[in-house]
């Protein structure tokens, strides 16, 4: 099953919550970790753009990702090789990673900017029950206001 069909199936069964995400890699910060939350929900990192900053030198900048694969092994995989004069930016589609994910600047001084979305998939039954609790509290608050 491909990653995008898995994501589509999950979206039909669960309610997604998306947050913008980004980080900067350079000589001082050569790695960026997107951690796994301990909330028992499913999380995805959707990487959309990798681009060089305006201050980046005209040298090769290689970005790799280290994520748990299906066998549980960790092995960095190169996902971008950018150079200011040749290819300063790439847009990605369909790169879905399950946290924990580590992005690494393998060579180059940067700055290299990564951006995308951090998706949290909430179970519809849980979110509906939580919404009902909130609406019941609101009704209770209104009743208390009228009694005053």
Could you please describe the fold and organization of this structure?
The protein is an alpha+beta fold and 148 residues long. Helix content is 24%, strand content 43%. It is built from two helices and nine strands. The strands form two sheets. Strands 1, 3, 6, 7 and 9 form a five-stranded antiparallel beta sheet that branches. A four-stranded antiparallel beta sheet has the order 2-8-4-5, with no helix packed on it.
Keywords, please?
4-stranded antiparallel beta sheet; 2 helices; alpha+beta; elongated; 148 residues
Describe the protein's topology.
Elements: H1 3-13, E1 14-25, E2 31-34, E3 42-52, E4 61-67, E5 77-82, E6 89-91, E7 96-97, E8 101-107, E9 112-123, H2 124-147
Antiparallel strand pairs: 1-9, 2-8, 3-6, 3-7, 3-9, 4-5, 4-8
The stretches of 5 or more residues where confidence is low (pLDDT under 50) are: none
How much of the residues is beta strand, in percent?
Answer: 35-45%
End-to-end separation in angstroms reads 59 Å
Shape estimate: elongated
- What letter string, H or E per element, gives the SSE order? HEEEEEEEEEH
* Total strand segments: 9
Helix residue percentage: 10-25%
Sheet/helix structural class: alpha+beta
What is the alpha-carbon Rg in Å?
20 Å
